[in-house]
Write a structure and sequence with these properties.
This protein is mainly β. The chain has no helices and 41 strands. Helices cover 0% and strands 46% of the residues.
């Protein structure tokens, strides 16, 4: 059995893996998208399906006001004492990064929490607040039954290393809080930006995996060991155990933020985040994805990739497990069920009834016109991840705007500063019309609009075609021919790499539907279905 990477395609970063019996689970970050944390399930390490999003009610997570690319960072999923344990960060303020040219103060606000459940499907407990000293929390269950929380330590003081090392502190299950002294156990290597700790115990050693070098092209997996949990830690003699930082030819880039797993046959696997750039090491519109690769323990006691080169691999030999595929998702999703199709999410709010309904008009998704596209609080946007460089998406919408402050339609969205939005709105001269609004993160012009086009009343179908960096929009009324807008839009802006200096960019591109009414009247839009179909490259997708 061959496994082709990435195993979790599209925006699925910061993987944490655990095995319980014959079941494997990976938790990944969701940032500002609600519900929080994605957990995928597999029985063969090759085929994965979305099994749960555990942070799904207001008592667990409320991200209203969280900046773009903040919210839920780097979950760690473990199993002990008959319970799944999930720790995660909710980032409330990003502040200044270490990038030159960034403005603003370096203060940040991180809150780390623990939730538990007997099953992956839940219900998961209300959260226990652990600390707020940094991000990327990880819970380690030692052989003697004691538990320790590790996390990156943030130092905002001038002249200090912002990434101040990895701290550890004991966690008391009886008291449901951290106890004892907080101690820095690892200050990192010269690569810097030390984060994403995971701790393991094997052959009398404590093994510490961290991510270093930043989450861009210089990302790397660092491995260190110590006889004592509190250190000192000896770093791997080869340097990074896995990285693409010096390999511009590698099809998987940005490799880092790993977690280790041992299968019952004694083999060791690493799951790690990666990016698939557009050709010629272009931007990563698919965001940071999750890959898997086998590692081996060498005679000197250190862990290495099978070829010893430390490079991420696009295709790997799989496990000895029997292949267990899942049924493929359909191209068309309708809205007849009591819940959204599983691949869809929305932004920030734990109160979905305020932004959409599947009951107001049975059989359709009704979005209520709310705040502007990019609002940090209550915006009506429901979308799914891009998972391939070439795809087609479409929807059928009913929406009759009364004035220019009302709009709805089909959107390709990264964040408030990066989107292409095919919207139906109202023009005083044309009446109901269609135009594209683009938010441009790396242009002197922050936003741009195409010329409005008058369209008839009644249902309208909206369509987008994406081929690598090229994006085209089309529309039609009824079952007639598609009308294509003449503009070719730059899809590559929907990526981490397209940004003003110092901004957080850690997610990926989504495609979906949205509705705004900045007059406050709440005018709704109804969507009958949504199509998403991955396909081969087309030189002219409108033909």
């Amino acid at each position: 059995m061959r496994i082709r990477n990435p195993i979790l395609r599209g925006f699925n970063p910061d993987p944490s893996i655990v095995r319980v019996g014959g079941d494997y689970y990976i938790a990944t970050s969701t940032f500002e998208w609600f519900p929080g944390v994605q957990i995928h399930h597999s029985r063969d390490l090759k085929n994965w399906r979305l099994a749960a999003r555990p942070l799904n009610r207001p008592s667990q997570l409320d991200m209203r006001g969280d900046p773009d690319s903040c919210g839920v960072w780097a979950p760690c999923l473990t199993y002990a004492d008959g319970l799944f344990h999930l720790v995660y960060t909710d980032v409330k303020r990003y502040g200044r990064t270490t990038v030159g040219g960034a403005s603003g103060a370096s203060l940040r606000d991180f809150h780390n929490y623990l939730v538990t459940s007997e099953t992956i499907e839940g219900d998961w407990s209300d959260p226990v607040h652990l600390n707020s000293s940094g991000f990327d929390p990880s819970l380690f269950h030692d052989a003697d039954g004691r538990k320790y929380l590790l996390n990156q330590l943030w130092d905002h003081r001038p002249g200090r290393n912002r990434f101040a090392g990895i701290v550890a502190q004991e966690y008391s299950t009886a008291e449901r809080r951290l106890v004892g002294e907080r101690r820095v156990i690892f200050e990192g290597t010269a690569l810097g930006l030390t984060e994403a700790p995971h701790l393991y115990r094997r052959d009398g050693w404590y093994w510490l995996v961290t991510a270093e070098g930043g989450t861009g092209w210089g990302h790397a997996v660092t491995l260190a060991r110590s006889r004592d949990l509190w250190g000192p830690y000896e770093v791997h003699p080869d340097g990074p155990v896995l990285t693409a930082r010096d390999r511009p030819d590698a099809p998987l880039q940005r490799a880092g933020h790993a977690d280790l797993l041992e299968t019952p046959d004694g083999r060791t696997w690493a799951v790690y985040l990666c990016g698939r750039p557009l050709p010629n090491r272009g931007r990563c519109t698919l965001g940071r994805e999750t890959a898997i690769q086998e590692l081996a323990w060498d005679e000197d006691g250190w862990l290495r990739t099978l070829d010893g080169q430390g490079a991420p691999e696009l295709e790997v030999e799989g496990s000895d497990l029997s292949e267990a595929p899942f049924q493929a998702d359909p191209v068309r999703r309708d809205f007849h069920g009591p819940a959204l199709p599983p691949e869809f999410q929305w932004l920030r709010t734990p109160y979905p009834d305020e932004i959409f309904s599947l009951r107001a008009r049975p059989g359709v998704l009704r979005l209520f016109g709310r705040e502007s596209l990019g609002s940090l609080f209550t915006q009506a946007l429901v979308a799914r991840r891009w998972q391939a460089h070439c795809f087609s998406a479409a929807t059928r919408m009913e929406f009759e705007p009364q004035h220019f402050q009302q709009a709805a339609g089909l959107v390709c969205y990264y964040n408030a500063a990066k989107f292409h939005y095919l919207m139906v709105t109202h023009d005083a001269d044309l009446g109901r019309c269609l135009q594209v609004m683009s938010a441009l993160p790396d242009s002197p012009q922050a936003d741009a609009f195409t010329r409005p086009v008058a369209i008839p009343a009644g249902p309208v179908e909206l369509r987008v075609e994406v081929d690598y960096e090229r994006l085209r929009f089309g529309w039609r009324a009824g079952e007639g021919a598609w009308t294509w807008l003449p503009e070719v839009f730059d899809a590559s802006i929907l990526s981490d790499e397209a940004t003003a200096p110092g901004q957080p960019n850690f997610t990926g591109a989504f495609v979906g539907v949205c509705c705004q009414d900045t007059s406050g009247a709440g005018r709704p839009a109804d969507f009958a279905w949504f199509d998403y179909a991955e396909r081969d490259y087309r030189a002219d997708p409108t033909a």
